[in-house]
């Protein structure tokens, strides 16, 4: 934001006629920066989908289900995957729509409104992904526990020993929290920097609008 600071200093030193020019220049600069940030949000979300798609291909759950002799579960996982991809593609469409909208915004108030809307969309996207991570882990734990024959010894111990059950639940809960924390940190680094810059632009626009 160094360019904005220099423009504001010149704005304060000169006449009223120059104030109007400076205000326009500041708006144009913020508009350009905001549009660029939203474009990067769109690009990163697309790259993220490609990354998870490649990982899902490399670590195919179908082989695991066939090995456990429960191929009938594959279709349920496919429905789950299609639903997830459908929601993510919808978010990507919203990011694209936001980029087009903010690129053509022509007023300070509208740009401020667009920035707040974009921030909420990204936040919803992050929370959705974190929620899906937790759901996926829980489903994975349940399937492994119920259908994996290697878990029969553990199931017998849990049935006869409450302490083993408590330890198992504790380990699964800790594993879920570790994964959740790691992914939360990942998204905070990935999108948090862009959202902070976008909100800094909003605060600058708010000063102009006063």
Shape assignment: elongated
Number of strands: 0
Mean pLDDT: 82
Number of helices: 7
Largest sheet: none
Structure class: mainly alpha
Number of domains: 1
Estimated radius of gyration: 25 Å
Structure summary:
The protein has helices spanning 2-13, 16-58, 61-67, 74-103, 108-147, 152-160, 162-209. With 210 residues, the protein is an all-alpha fold. The mean pLDDT is 82.
Q: Could you describe the 3D structure shown?
A:
With 210 residues, the chain is an all-alpha fold. It has one domain (2-209). It has seven helices and no strands. α2 (16-58) runs antiparallel to α4 and α2 runs antiparallel to α7. The radius of gyration is 25 Å and the shape is elongated. The mean pLDDT is 82. Keywords: Membrane, Transmembrane, Transmembrane helix. It comes from Flavobacterium ranwuense. The chain crosses the membrane at residues 37-59, 79-96, 125-147, 167-187.
Can you give keywords for this protein?
210 residues, elongated, transmembrane, membrane, mainly alpha, single chain, transmembrane helix, 90% helix, Beta-carotene 15,15'-monooxygenase, 0% strand
List the helices and strands and how they pair.
Blueprint: H1 2-13, H2 16-58, H3 61-67, H4 74-103, H5 108-147, H6 152-160, H7 162-209
Helix pairs in contact: 1-2, 2-4, 2-5, 2-7, 4-5, 5-7, 6-7
Keywords: Membrane, Transmembrane, Transmembrane helix
Protein name: Beta-carotene 15,15'-monooxygenase
Transmembrane segments: 37-59, 79-96, 125-147, 167-187
């Amino acid at each position: 934001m160094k360019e904005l600071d220099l423009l504001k200093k010149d704005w304060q030193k000169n006449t009223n006629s120059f104030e109007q020019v400076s205000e326009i220049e500041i708006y144009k600069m913020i508009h350009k920066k905001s549009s660029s940030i939203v474009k990067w949000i769109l690009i990163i979300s697309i790259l993220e989908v490609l990354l998870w798609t490649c990982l899902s291909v490399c670590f195919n759950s179908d082989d695991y289900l066939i090995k456990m002799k429960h191929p009938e579960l594959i279709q349920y996982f496919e429905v789950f995957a299609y639903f997830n991809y459908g929601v993510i593609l919808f978010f990507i469409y919203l990011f694209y729509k936001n980029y087009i909208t903010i690129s053509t915004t022509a007023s300070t108030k509208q740009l401020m409104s667009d920035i707040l809307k974009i921030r909420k969309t990204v936040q919803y996207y992050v929370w959705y992904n974190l929620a899906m991570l937790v759901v996926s882990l829980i489903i994975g734990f349940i399937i492994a526990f119920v259908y994996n024959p290697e878990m029969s010894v553990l199931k017998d111990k849990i049935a006869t020993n409450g302490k083993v059950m408590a330890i198992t639940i504790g380990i699964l809960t800790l594993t879920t929290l570790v994964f959740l924390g790691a992914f939360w940190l990942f998204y905070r680094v990935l999108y948090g920097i862009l959202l902070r810059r976008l909100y800094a632009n909003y605060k600058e626009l708010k000063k102009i609008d006063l």
